[in-house]
Amino acid sequence: MLFFCDSGNVWGMAFPRPRKTYTESELFEYALGALGRRMRSVAELKRLLRPRVEAETEIGQTLVELVIRRLKDRGYLNDANYAAAYSSFRRDNEKFGRRRVISDLKSKGVHGDLIEKAVDLAYDEVNEEKQARDYLRRKRLRKPCDQKQAARIFRHLMRAGFGAKTVFTILKNWDVDEETLSALAEETAE
Q1: Structural domain contains residue 7
Q2: In this structure, is residue 95 part of a structural domain?
Q3: Is 7 helix (H, G, I), strand (E, B) or coil?
Q4: pLDDT tens profile 25-48
Q5: Phi then psi dihedrals of residue 101, to 5 deg
Q6: Is residue 160 part of a domain?
Q7: Same domain, 133 and 114
Q8: Is the same domain home to 135 and 184?
Q9: Which of 15, 75, 83, 98 is the most buried (most CB within 10 A)?
Q10: Looking at residue 183, what is its pLDDT?
Q11: Are residues 113 and 133 in the same domain?
């Protein structure tokens, strides 16, 4: 640490610690550890590895690609398997709708074709209305007693990835008044 003195005042200035640059084997071990903690997409793992090498240089980029290739060759990294497992988990455990799973997989960098296949397979025989009701039960959301609660449930279901048609069907079954439903319909049109 370096200190400066100016008429009795002392300031300290910390120097940044030099970054450790990883060799290929160290980077591979780090990637294995990261995959051991949880499944990741190729894009997620690349984002995780880049700060550990000099990513701006060609050598750093090549190092990341080599590690990714080794992981793929050994079967530790596969976006198709990741998308399928992720879709099934979110459907069964968290009760999310297909739209939410699609947007989550996109944010994780999975290719659109893989997302489409995995989500179609996972949600092939799922009744969206039943899934939405299961989601409401999981979140302990009950029949709304006023307009504000109906809007809250509507937004909750939309964020969870259910279609507007399904959400309106549930709200109509709960005898939500037409005025509230039309106000919510205008909100989705915006």
Answers
A1: no
A2: yes
A3: coil
A4: 999 999 999 999 999 999 999 999
A5: -65, -40
A6: yes
A7: no
A8: yes
A9: 83
A10: 82
A11: no
Q: How far is CA 182 from CA 71, 166, 175, in A?
A: 52, 15, 13
Does residue 180 share a domain with residue 152? yes
- Residue ranges for the chain with pLDDT beneath 50: 1
Q: How many domains does the chain have?
A: 3
| pTM recorded for the entire structure | 0.81
First to last CA, the chain: 56
Where do runs of H (alpha helix) occur along 1-96? 24-37, 42-49, 58-73, 79-92
**φ, ψ (nearest 5 deg) of residue 75:** 80, 15
Residues 94 and 116 in one domain: yes
Query: Can you tell me whether residue 111 is helix, strand or coil?
Result: coil
pLDDT score recorded for residue 147: 87
Residue 168: both structure tokens together: 């309106």
Are 179 and 137 part of one and the same domain?
yes
In sequence order, what are the residues at sequence separation of 6 or more whose Cβ sits closer than 8 angstroms to the Cβ of residue 132? Answer: 97, 157, 160, 162, 166, 167, 170
Report whether 158 contacts 188 (CB < 8 A): yes
Distance CA 21, CA 99 (A): 40
